[in-house]
Structure formats: structure tokens, C-alpha cells
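Please study the protein below:
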Amino acid sequence: MSKRRSRYALKNNVHSIGFHVIPKNEKQNRLIRSIQMYPIVVTIGCAGTGKTYCSTGAIASLYQKGNYEKIVITRANVPTGKTLGHFPGTIQDKMTPWLMPMLEVLEEAFSKEKYKYMLNKGEIEIQPIETIRGRSYKNSLVLVDEAQNLSIEELKAITTRLGENSKLVLMGDPAQSDVKNGQDLMTFCSHVERSGILLPVIEFTVKDIVRSDIVAELVKMFIKEKI
């Protein structure tokens, strides 16, 4: 069993459908259950809390039950830090490096061979944010990472693309926004709450970090020093 597999207690069962992620704490449990129950879920929080891993694992588990046609993966088209420029190749080639946290979970969930097959067949779809406008996703599971970098216009475009029998998970860390005044995700959550819309927002804090003790200490330092 790999370090990552043991860390998050990912359980595979070859005699039944797929696998499931055993939550490490109550916040992870709430996140997984919310994804199962609601069409749209927002999860926010600092690095190391398992929000991306649990979200992607929950989506993979839902897909394996056979009620959905595809998994759609995307993220805000904003680099973290200095960019190396444009990558060559197809859209899939260009976006894959930015989507690795989610794609690695899917590869682990489905096996490397099945994962490649799903990519080739379009059952796993890598989709740029800018081309989501005008699309309508039916029978789909949509994962959006780095959502703290999305504008309110992009959030509007994405959340209104969801069709019948579909789910959307927005994942982000408002403390790590790479855009100026990048608080639109929190503004969106506030509007949702004031409107009384049943859309869970699962917020992780430093206390919920499960990755390692050193990660928790570093995140606390960054927050304290306002870095």
C-alpha cells in the first residue's frame, strides 16, 4: 500500500463496485456526504486538509456506480507564481500539468489502464474554463479546482451550466488567490447563503490538516505572518 493510499485510507474492493474514501475527520465526512446528496458543493480551506483528494475520490466513487456518463475536470486558468509560458500540444496536454492533483486520484481510483481508456473515450473530459460557457452538462460529474481564482462571471457561467442528473464541486483556498481582489468565491457563497439556496459550503481550517505535522506548522506560520 502506497504512502498516499494509507494516508487517506483509500479502500479498494475488487469484489464490489469501485472504492470509497474513508474520511479522516468530521469535515471530510461532511464533504463526502454532501457531494453524494447535493448537486452543487463548495469546499474551501488551506492546503493539506484533503479537500481535493476527498472530492475527487467521492466523484470517482459516484461514477463507478454507473449513473453518470462522464467526469469533467477543470480549474481556473491562472498560474501559481511565475509562469513557464504556454505548453505545446492539445488542450489536454496543456492542462494536464495543472490538473495533476485530481488526475492522480482518478488514475489511482480506476487503475492506470482504465484511466487512459476513459480519457480516450471522453469519459474523463479535460475542459478549459473559457469553453464551458454555452455548454450544458447532463449526467456529468464536474470538478473545478483553484476556484478562488474564478471571477463572479466565471462562477455564474459554470454553476448555470449544470444539467439534469449532474453534480458540481468547487474547490479552493481563498487565502491563496493568485488574482487581484480574489474574493469572488466567498462573495458567491455569501449570496447563496442570503438567498437561502441549499448549497453546502464545507470549510476546512488549519485544525483539519491531515497531510503532515510540518505542513500544519507551515500553514500556521504563513497565516500568522500574513505571507
User: Anything to note?
Assistant: DSSP finds nine helices and eight strands in the chain. The longest strand covers residues 70-75. The radius of gyration is 17 Å. The mean pLDDT is 84.
